Every structure is written in C-alpha cells, then in structure tokens.
Amino acid sequence: MRDRGFCAESDSEMYQAFDMTYDYDVDEIWRKYVNDKIPLARYVEALDQQEYIYPKNYIKMRCLENHDQVRAHKMFINENDMFNWTAFSEFQKGSTLIYAGQEAGMKHTPSLFDKDKIDWKDQKMDLSALMVRMHELSQDEIQYAGNYEIEALDNDVVKVTYTKDDKIRVGLFTLKGQPGRAKVDVRSDQYTNLIDNSLVNVQNGILTIDYDPIIIEGKTR
After folding, report:
1. CB–CB of 144/162 below 8 Å?
2. Contact (CB, 8 A) for 72 and 175
3. Element (H, E) at 176
4. CA nearest neighbour of 21 among 45, 44, 50
C-alpha cells in the first residue's frame, strides 16, 4: 500500500488514535501453529513480542472467530480443545471479541451478504458459563493492571502468569489435548481452580494439568 502511494499505518502507530487493535499481527502465525506447521514456542514468541513493540497500555482484541473467519469449532473438532482454546484466548492480556453463536459452539459460518440467522437448535456445546467466568476473572486488578508473562511448555501446554505486588495468578492450558507439568512460583498446597472451583495440588512447585484448563491464585514465594 505504501509503495502505491497510500498511507498505511502500522499497529503500533494505530495506538496513537485507537485504544485497541485486532490480533491480526499474529493471526497467520497462530493458524500455522493450529495446523501443525510451526511449534507452540514460535506462536508464543509472537505473542510475547507484542509486549515490547506496542505501547505500555496497548490492548489487543483477542478472538477465535469473527465475521471474516471460519468458526473455531470447525478448526477444533475436539470439544476439550474448544474449551481450552476459549479459556486461553480470554485469559490473555487484552479484550475479548465473541462472535454471535460462538458461545454455542456453532460450526456454520453465517453469510455476510444474505439473511442467515443463527439456528439455536443446532447448538453443538455450551461455552457460555466458561465465557462468563473468564470475563469475571478479567475484571480483577491483577489481570488488567498486573505484569503479564506467557510461556510455551512441553506437550503443547501454554502457561500465562499475572503478578501484582505479592499476588500471582497462573493459567495452564493444553492446546492439543496432552497432559503437562509446569513450575509455578507458589508454595506447595491445595488450590482452587478459579474456572470451576475444583481442587488442584501444587507439589514442590509443580502443577500438573491433565485435560481441563487450570487457573490458580496465591502469594508469591
């Protein structure tokens, strides 16, 4: 566009006028990871890069699907993957865009140009409670004002950490249905999974994830 004489602003320049931008700067990398063309570490590297190429108060609009893209449930056939990706997407730093029918796991992508109402009888799964809970967590100060870190672990497990003062909130998400282990900076104890109120154990600084996403909060060691 610039070579043709048009003004084309980078995402970083856009923040001079706008509060948030789409997550399209990492979209191609994300899709390559989903399709097994690159490792998780490369995708996480791109997400981490956003921290130092954008202003301190940058907001990314995170989404798994929108009116320009196919439904997430078409990409993630396994419902457990859908659950983990939904939780991970909404636990990242930024804002969340939810496309109509996404909360019901719809697979049909509506037409942009013809009348194409959502068929609620075709509901595939119910993600609404998870989305509500993730929104509630996002309103906590530790997530909107705390320090944010993201890390790729073995077996396609990703760890997201927020810290503020002496508090730490850690999320673990298995993105391709494999179990994993993560070092967490909290003392050994039993913790409540903030997503569903189940109990999880931290032993010697290690938290194990099976198939369900986990978010815990504690005091830093």
Report:
1. no
2. no
3. none
4. 50
SS3 state of residue 218: strand
Q: How far is CA 91 from CA 88, 122, 126, 193, in A?
A: 5, 27, 18, 14
Residue 159 has phi, psi (to 5 degrees) of -115, 130
Tokens of 104: 């019901």
Residues 6+ apart with CB under 8 A from 176: 81, 155, 156
Which pTM does this prediction carry?
0.94
The whole-angstrom separation of Cα 208 and Cα 153 is 12
Among the residues of the chain, which ranges form H helices? 11-14, 27-34, 40-53, 72-75, 79-91, 128-138, 141-145
State which H helix or E strand residue 22 sits in: strand 20-22
* Distance (Å, whole) CA 24 – CA 19: 15
Give 70-88 pLDDT, tens digit per residue.
Answer: 999 999 989 999 999 999 9
Give the DSSP H/E element, type plus range, for residue 192.
Answer: strand 189-192
Name the nearest CA neighbour of 210 among 182, 179, 181.
179
Query: Using one digit for the tens of pLDDT, what is the confidence trace for 190-212?
Result: 999 999 999 999 999 999 999 99
147-152 sheet: strands from edge to edge? 147-152, 157-164, 167-174, 214-219
